[in-house]
Amino acid sequence: MSTPAIVVVGAGPGVSGSVARLFAAEGYAVGLVGIDAAPLSELEATIADVDVRTAIADLTDVESATHAITGLGDHFGRIDVLHFNPSAFREKDPLELTVAELLQDVALGVGALLTAVQAARPYLSSGARVTVTGSMAADEPWHRAASLGVQKAGVRNLVHSLEATLAPDGIRAVSVTVQGTLAREGAFTPDRVAAAILAASRQDEDGWRTDVPYAG
After folding, report:
1. Concatenated DSSP letters for 7-29?
2. Residues paired with residue 203 on neighbouring β-strands, in sequence order
3. 106-144 tens-digit pLDDT
4. Which residues of the chain have pLDDT under 70?
5. In the chain, what are the domains?
6. How far is the C-alpha of 62 from the C-alpha of 136, rounded, in Å?
7. Edge to edge, what strands does the sheet with 81-84 contain?
8. Comparing C-alpha atoms, which of 85, 94, 183 is closest to residue 145?
9. Strand pairing partners for 9?
Protein backbone atom coordinates (compact mmCIF):
# COMPACT_ATOMS: atom_id res chain seq x y z
CA MET A 1 0.00 0.00 0.00
CA SER A 2 1.47 3.35 -1.05
CA THR A 3 -0.89 5.52 1.02
CA PRO A 4 0.69 6.60 4.33
CA ALA A 5 -1.11 5.44 7.46
CA ILE A 6 -1.54 6.70 11.00
CA VAL A 7 -2.62 4.53 13.91
CA VAL A 8 -4.15 6.47 16.80
CA VAL A 9 -3.92 4.58 20.09
CA GLY A 10 -6.49 5.62 22.66
CA ALA A 11 -8.77 7.12 20.01
CA GLY A 12 -11.92 8.99 20.92
CA PRO A 13 -13.25 12.52 21.20
CA GLY A 14 -10.82 15.31 21.98
CA VAL A 15 -7.22 15.56 20.85
CA SER A 16 -6.99 12.02 19.48
CA GLY A 17 -10.03 12.59 17.28
CA SER A 18 -8.62 15.87 16.02
CA VAL A 19 -5.29 14.16 15.26
CA ALA A 20 -7.08 11.44 13.29
CA ARG A 21 -9.09 13.94 11.23
CA LEU A 22 -6.10 16.20 10.60
CA PHE A 23 -3.89 13.40 9.31
CA ALA A 24 -6.80 12.10 7.22
CA ALA A 25 -7.04 15.55 5.63
CA GLU A 26 -3.32 15.21 4.87
CA GLY A 27 -4.06 12.02 2.94
CA TYR A 28 -3.30 9.38 5.56
CA ALA A 29 -5.29 6.18 5.98
CA VAL A 30 -6.43 6.01 9.60
CA GLY A 31 -6.45 3.23 12.17
CA LEU A 32 -8.29 3.85 15.43
CA VAL A 33 -7.66 1.79 18.57
CA GLY A 34 -9.84 2.16 21.65
CA ILE A 35 -11.65 0.22 24.33
CA ASP A 36 -15.27 1.14 23.46
CA ALA A 37 -16.97 0.59 20.13
CA ALA A 38 -19.36 3.57 20.31
CA PRO A 39 -16.74 6.38 20.49
CA LEU A 40 -14.73 4.69 17.75
CA SER A 41 -17.77 4.49 15.49
CA GLU A 42 -18.65 8.11 16.17
CA LEU A 43 -15.12 9.20 15.35
CA GLU A 44 -14.96 7.01 12.26
CA ALA A 45 -18.11 8.72 10.96
CA THR A 46 -16.36 12.12 11.07
CA ILE A 47 -13.51 11.01 8.80
CA ALA A 48 -14.19 11.02 5.08
CA ASP A 49 -12.42 10.13 1.84
CA VAL A 50 -9.74 7.86 3.31
CA ASP A 51 -9.53 4.24 4.42
CA VAL A 52 -10.53 4.13 8.11
CA ARG A 53 -10.31 1.00 10.25
CA THR A 54 -11.15 0.53 13.91
CA ALA A 55 -9.93 -2.00 16.46
CA ILE A 56 -11.25 -2.53 19.98
CA ALA A 57 -8.66 -3.34 22.63
CA ASP A 58 -7.90 -3.01 26.31
CA LEU A 59 -4.62 -1.13 26.05
CA THR A 60 -3.44 -2.47 29.41
CA ASP A 61 -3.81 -6.02 28.07
CA VAL A 62 -0.65 -6.70 26.09
CA GLU A 63 -2.16 -9.47 23.99
CA SER A 64 -5.31 -7.50 23.17
CA ALA A 65 -3.45 -4.29 22.28
CA THR A 66 -0.82 -6.12 20.25
CA HIS A 67 -3.48 -7.98 18.26
CA ALA A 68 -5.30 -4.72 17.49
CA ILE A 69 -2.21 -2.84 16.31
CA THR A 70 -0.73 -5.68 14.30
CA GLY A 71 -4.10 -6.20 12.64
CA LEU A 72 -4.11 -2.58 11.49
CA GLY A 73 -0.47 -2.86 10.41
CA ASP A 74 -1.30 -5.94 8.36
CA HIS A 75 -4.25 -4.18 6.73
CA PHE A 76 -2.37 -1.01 5.81
CA GLY A 77 0.93 -2.75 5.15
CA ARG A 78 2.73 0.08 6.96
CA ILE A 79 2.46 2.51 9.85
CA ASP A 80 3.93 5.92 9.18
CA VAL A 81 2.72 7.63 12.36
CA LEU A 82 1.86 5.94 15.64
CA HIS A 83 0.07 8.42 17.88
CA PHE A 84 -0.32 7.61 21.57
CA ASN A 85 -2.95 9.51 23.49
CA PRO A 86 -4.32 7.65 26.56
CA SER A 87 -3.95 8.53 30.21
CA ALA A 88 -5.97 7.82 33.34
CA PHE A 89 -7.50 10.59 35.40
CA ARG A 90 -8.11 9.58 38.98
CA GLU A 91 -8.93 12.31 41.49
CA LYS A 92 -6.93 11.14 44.48
CA ASP A 93 -4.11 12.85 46.32
CA PRO A 94 -0.96 10.98 47.41
CA LEU A 95 -2.48 10.05 50.77
CA GLU A 96 -5.57 8.57 49.16
CA LEU A 97 -3.97 6.92 46.15
CA THR A 98 -3.01 3.28 46.63
CA VAL A 99 0.01 1.63 45.07
CA ALA A 100 -2.28 -0.67 43.12
CA GLU A 101 -4.19 2.30 41.69
CA LEU A 102 -0.99 4.11 40.77
CA LEU A 103 0.35 1.06 38.95
CA GLN A 104 -2.97 0.55 37.19
CA ASP A 105 -2.90 4.12 35.91
CA VAL A 106 0.75 3.95 34.87
CA ALA A 107 0.02 0.73 32.98
CA LEU A 108 -2.35 2.73 30.75
CA GLY A 109 -0.58 6.08 30.57
CA VAL A 110 2.97 4.76 30.17
CA GLY A 111 3.13 0.99 29.82
CA ALA A 112 0.69 0.87 26.93
CA LEU A 113 3.11 2.98 24.89
CA LEU A 114 5.67 0.19 25.14
CA THR A 115 3.11 -2.34 23.92
CA ALA A 116 2.03 -0.06 21.08
CA VAL A 117 5.53 0.63 19.80
CA GLN A 118 6.65 -2.98 20.09
CA ALA A 119 3.57 -4.12 18.16
CA ALA A 120 3.97 -1.41 15.52
CA ARG A 121 7.73 -1.79 15.06
CA PRO A 122 7.58 -4.30 12.14
CA TYR A 123 5.47 -1.79 10.21
CA LEU A 124 7.61 1.27 10.97
CA SER A 125 10.31 2.16 8.47
CA SER A 126 12.70 5.06 8.01
CA GLY A 127 10.73 8.30 8.13
CA ALA A 128 8.06 6.94 10.47
CA ARG A 129 7.12 8.85 13.59
CA VAL A 130 5.94 8.04 17.11
CA THR A 131 4.01 10.97 18.60
CA VAL A 132 2.61 11.33 22.11
CA THR A 133 0.12 13.74 23.67
CA GLY A 134 1.99 15.17 26.64
CA SER A 135 0.86 17.50 29.39
CA MET A 136 2.08 20.22 31.71
CA ALA A 137 1.11 17.81 34.49
CA ALA A 138 4.56 16.28 33.93
CA ASP A 139 6.11 19.46 35.34
CA GLU A 140 3.29 20.98 37.36
CA PRO A 141 1.21 18.11 38.72
CA TRP A 142 -2.06 18.77 40.51
CA HIS A 143 -1.84 17.00 43.85
CA ARG A 144 -5.50 15.98 43.64
CA ALA A 145 -4.71 13.85 40.59
CA ALA A 146 -1.33 12.55 41.66
CA SER A 147 -1.17 9.61 39.28
CA LEU A 148 -1.67 11.80 36.19
CA GLY A 149 1.53 13.73 36.83
CA VAL A 150 3.43 10.47 37.25
CA GLN A 151 2.00 9.18 33.98
CA LYS A 152 2.85 12.27 31.99
CA ALA A 153 6.37 12.52 33.41
CA GLY A 154 6.89 8.82 32.80
CA VAL A 155 5.62 8.78 29.23
CA ARG A 156 7.78 11.79 28.31
CA ASN A 157 10.81 10.06 29.78
CA LEU A 158 9.99 6.90 27.82
CA VAL A 159 9.79 8.93 24.61
CA HIS A 160 13.43 9.98 25.13
CA SER A 161 14.45 6.32 25.34
CA LEU A 162 12.34 5.38 22.32
CA GLU A 163 13.95 8.16 20.31
CA ALA A 164 17.46 6.97 21.19
CA THR A 165 16.53 3.40 20.28
CA LEU A 166 14.67 4.10 17.03
CA ALA A 167 16.58 7.06 15.59
CA PRO A 168 19.41 4.96 14.10
CA ASP A 169 16.76 3.39 11.85
CA GLY A 170 15.36 6.77 10.82
CA ILE A 171 12.29 6.52 13.07
CA ARG A 172 11.78 9.50 15.36
CA ALA A 173 9.77 9.97 18.55
CA VAL A 174 8.34 13.13 20.09
CA SER A 175 6.09 14.15 22.95
CA VAL A 176 4.14 17.39 22.65
CA THR A 177 3.75 18.96 26.09
CA VAL A 178 0.45 20.83 26.16
CA GLN A 179 1.03 23.78 28.49
CA GLY A 180 -2.59 24.64 29.11
CA THR A 181 -6.06 23.24 29.68
CA LEU A 182 -8.03 21.91 26.74
CA ALA A 183 -11.01 24.09 25.85
CA ARG A 184 -13.64 24.51 23.15
CA GLU A 185 -12.29 27.92 22.20
CA GLY A 186 -8.94 29.68 22.21
CA ALA A 187 -5.42 28.40 21.88
CA PHE A 188 -5.98 25.01 23.47
CA THR A 189 -8.76 23.53 21.39
CA PRO A 190 -8.17 19.90 20.38
CA ASP A 191 -7.75 20.99 16.76
CA ARG A 192 -4.96 23.41 17.64
CA VAL A 193 -3.19 20.82 19.77
CA ALA A 194 -3.50 18.35 16.90
CA ALA A 195 -1.90 20.90 14.58
CA ALA A 196 1.01 21.20 17.03
CA ILE A 197 1.40 17.42 17.01
CA LEU A 198 1.44 17.35 13.21
CA ALA A 199 4.07 20.10 13.18
CA ALA A 200 6.19 18.26 15.75
CA SER A 201 6.10 15.14 13.60
CA ARG A 202 7.52 17.18 10.73
CA GLN A 203 10.43 18.78 12.55
CA ASP A 204 13.74 19.17 10.79
CA GLU A 205 15.59 15.97 11.67
CA ASP A 206 18.87 17.82 12.16
CA GLY A 207 17.36 19.74 15.08
CA TRP A 208 14.98 17.06 16.29
CA ARG A 209 13.53 17.57 19.77
CA THR A 210 11.89 14.74 21.67
CA ASP A 211 9.90 17.15 23.85
CA VAL A 212 8.13 19.99 22.07
CA PRO A 213 6.16 22.42 24.26
CA TYR A 214 2.88 23.78 22.97
CA ALA A 215 2.06 27.01 24.77
CA GLY A 216 -0.67 28.20 22.44
Report:
1. EEET-STTHHHHHHHHHHHTT-E
2. none
3. 999 999 999 999 999 999 999 999 999 999 999 999 999
4. 1
5. 5-214 (3.40.50.720)
6. 28
7. 52-56, 29-34, 5-9, 81-84, 129-135, 172-178, 211-214
8. 94
9. 33, 84
